[in-house]
Amino acid sequence: MQARVKWVEDASFLGITDSNHAVLMDGPPDAGGRNLGPRPMEMLLLGAGGCTAFDVVAILKKSRQAVSGCEVSIQADRADKEPKVFTKMHFHFTVRGKGVKPEQVEKAIKLSAEKYCSASIMLGKTAEMTHDFEIVEE
Q: Which of 74, 100, 91 is nearest to 133 (CA)?
């Protein structure tokens, strides 16, 4: 896997993935940015959220659960001093579907957190990870 990050101007950087997708990252105005895109640390949160949500949906589908939606909200705390790594991360899953079993959702989240989601497992080396969920019947 490869990626490139190219400085555009001021505090703006263009990230280009190996699969040829691009994302503009930018800093806040007080750091010389123009707030044109997410911060790099926000990208880490998005990556972890996307990784675990992908896993949870795939596992629930394999478990024959009638899942129709999955959203994960992530709350993260960072260290006060440099390097300002994530120290705590909480993932709240909202799973939508018909007759989705709570024990299947709990199992899917646990498998993602402990076995499949490379992003959150890697971030878990510096951060305390917690998870919870709710099921919305449709």
A: 91
